[in-house]
């Protein structure tokens, strides 16, 4: 992966730090000697009713939701800690989890797993920065309640895996994704036994390198034929990697720059250099031949632009050429979201878009504080890093992608058996480009056919809502393009980068609602969010999606689809180009007085 290489290319200038006072935790932090026992009794006595999962087996994992450092609200019932991969063998390693039961009464006998990618990046980190009950994102003053938390829809557990990731402990032994899946299923059996979840529907979700993890884990669950422990019901991946890096990086890099020409302010000479490399290295022919609808056939095993050792040739490394040039022009350029600008934001988790920037006096990373570790049952002797530089695969190699075709062999199995798979991608993501996901889809065979038969054009519609909290604002209206065939749905999100749940939380929330069956599809303007059921939507035709697919995205006058304007209604309309323009008007209609949902 390129996340570390991208960070190292940031200029030295950004390392100039702020002269801040040393940050110190509050002097009124709780004493932990009896806190857990007291909280166990308190949650039993709560007026809301009994906790859902508190038993003799689970009480050692209880997290006091009122005593998490710096969090000034009760996050509710949750459980966290280390659990053996093999319950009969302590030396096999332990995975760290943080489990939040759902606030929703509809979440009956189902659970969602979240796995962050990397490889080696912590799911605990993305709980706090993306989709968990509390948020402390870069630039935020303190943690806040996340109104778009996924646990408002279903039960969710965030797991640091494989061994060596986040708070998890042990010596990495996995050589490929089959090993990762075997270890995870063994852990999951122990988790199900601990929380008495036999027969629960399981939804496997993740992002980035979880495009490798999730399909292998979900496919192994399918093949187990064990509904008690592995009742797999669906899978969702955001901005995933499914094959060798070149498919999502070098091959589509130059068309990506052309599409975002107003962001990449390159001179004509450099643009010509990129275009020449794109043609000479075979990338242009590859895109023209294989990114078509319906597919042209099975893509070749030999990827253009590589040398005999499988490395990208220097003269063909257009991705790095673009990164270096973009960073010269915009020193804080982020491969994760290309429209980010300086200054770098303070990140309590120490990641800061891969730059690892820490202002002087910032103190320890949040999850490395001893009081935080005690509060969430994390190992005190483990240094937490959002994305570890220590390999999480034996011999530093994931053989499934370095010597194989990635997750493409197992993806069809999951789609065919669940008929409920969502692959989403933010179009501002440069670390993994959206056309790479489409190339993967067009190389898969499921449901008796290869790839998508039609080019994606439908509008990705996100309902209007009453959330006016300035800390958790989220867009509405047409926010991209969506397409579904034979149990696979693809979302192209026009306003998101790599961290989709962070950049567009309402899109991510809607995707979870669809995945678990609370709502049907993404095109209808007539269905509200489950947490905001009484809102109304503007009336009219949503038109086409706002993300145009290759090669049309590269053609002159690419603002039009199929040479025709989208249909309009005579009433209040939601257009392909500007559903968001109705947002303020819709809120005025929806909300007579400020209300929280």
From TrEMBL:
Alphabetical GO biological process terms: proteolysis
Signal peptide feature range: 1-16
Domain of life: Eukaryota
Pfam families hit by this protein: Peptidase_S10 (PF00450)
PANTHER family documented for this protein: CARBOXYPEPTIDASE, SERINE PROTEASE FAMILY S10 SERINE CARBOXYPEPTIDASE
Keyword Transmembrane: no
Family per similarity comment: Belongs to the peptidase S10 family.
Keyword Hydrolase listed: yes
GO terms of molecular function: serine-type carboxypeptidase activity
Transmembrane annotation, as ranges: none
Keyword list, A-Z: Carboxypeptidase, Glycoprotein, Hydrolase, Protease, Signal
Official protein name in the record: Serine carboxypeptidase
InterPro entries in the record: AB_hydrolase_fold, Peptidase_S10
